[in-house]
Amino acid sequence: MRRFTALDALRGLALLGMCLSGRIPWDGLPAWMYHAQEPPPTHEISATAFGITWVDIVFPFFLFSMGAAIPLALSRRLEKDPLIKVVGGIFLRGLLLGAFAVIVQHFRPEQISKDPNMTTWWTVIGLFFAVALAYAQWPKSVPPKVQLGLRIVGWAVVIGALLLFPFRDDKGFSPADRADVILMILANVAVTGSLIWLFTRNRPLARIGWLGIALAIFLAAQQPGWAATVWNWTPASWAYRFEFQKYLLLVLPGTFCGDLYLRAYRKDREPTWPWWRFAPIALIGFAIQPLLLVGLHGRELTYMPLVALALSLVAVGLTIKPKGSIERLLTPVVRWGTFLLAIGLLVEPIGGGIRKDAPTTLSYFFVCAGMAAFMLAALTIVFEAVKDRQPLRYLSDAGANPMLGYLAITNISSAFFVVTRIEDAVANWQLSPWQGVAYAGVKTFIVGLIAMIGTRCRFFLRT
Q1: Cα(220)–Cα(262) distance, rounded to whole angstroms?
Q2: Inter-residue contact 285 to 377 (CB < 8 Å)
Q3: Closest alpha carbon to 406 in 103, 151, 5
Q4: Higher pLDDT residue, 236 or 138?
Q5: Is the dihedral of CA 150, 151, 155, 158 positive or negative?
Q6: 434-446 pLDDT, tens per residue?
Q7: How far lies 385's CA from each of 8, 276, 332, in Å?
Q8: How many CA atoms lie within 13 A of 274 on its CB side?
Q9: Bridge-partner residues for 137, per DSSP?
Q10: This prediction's pTM
């Protein structure tokens, strides 16, 4: 079954955005280069800062793409496995992804040593390969016994390092102190989002009901009562917080797009519209991103929402009377994105304005989901309607291997430049802030390159 490369590209865009946002200089850049609620120069959370920046949308884009991938992945399993085995696989995936969150955080250089030296950096690179072996999915040309042997070696090194390393605080292995919160959120909502899709796959109205329940609990938890009690309950805060389930407000909208893509799998995917009809839809999908970011961060709330909604309605008009499967896919995705954006912009004033953190506001989820839907529509046109896709494969190939890319962010993107002495040379150049952004871009490109090479060699990291 041919992959939907547009979905991989959206995931790749989010992955590379996460890498770049964590590598840019901490000082000297405008506020829109950082989280909107953590403006420079102090980068402390501000109760009076509203709006979102590009940094604030990369994680929602990743969550949305994960939701869109759920129908594609689980439908393949349902074709060959009984329901009970699929449910067990969902929980196993969540467990392995949670373990990955703990492993990755323990093996960061700053966690291994308070003052990383060259030995630390080489250790970090070695652990990158150990974790990669532990989670590897090899091409079919590699014999199963060889795959099993390499996986055992990988897990042996990983477990040995976790048990033997004292780490920076001499506490040793300590999940309570060292667990990657981004990956742990993904592990939690991957389980709940997959289960909700599995049991509502033929009943979309029931899934909308679950979306409403998630929305109601999110709103009710902000006031004293039983919802707040459930919201704040946790058996182990590092592994599970009910609060994590608020991100279902991004995952579940993504599953509806995944359903649409799943239907397109089974049909001829050659475009029938001329390029001049596709082009304005793609342009609107791309243009609406900076329009919303600039308007919301700059608090231009009079005309920007009207312009954004007008553009989205133009895109809806351009998708009427679809003919081929690609066109029939674009029509509901664009309408879904318009619907999500309209809700998000209508509720934007609630809570004082859109915020990612402290506290997260309702509009954040719907605006980001709408933006992700429009970006996915634009990327679908680029990857499905454009004949020569070769120059674009870097992005989609990187997104097809997100775990390898994420591991490269934590264990390679800095370590490679340190052990090759490039970091020392760059430090002597005394780069300006924007030159520092360019340097961060090089590191980000390396991360994408590693994930891309893995994809082209059919080597993936999977849970």
Answers
A1: 34
A2: yes
A3: 103
A4: 138
A5: positive
A6: 999 999 999 999 9
A7: 16, 11, 17
A8: 1
A9: 460
A10: 0.94
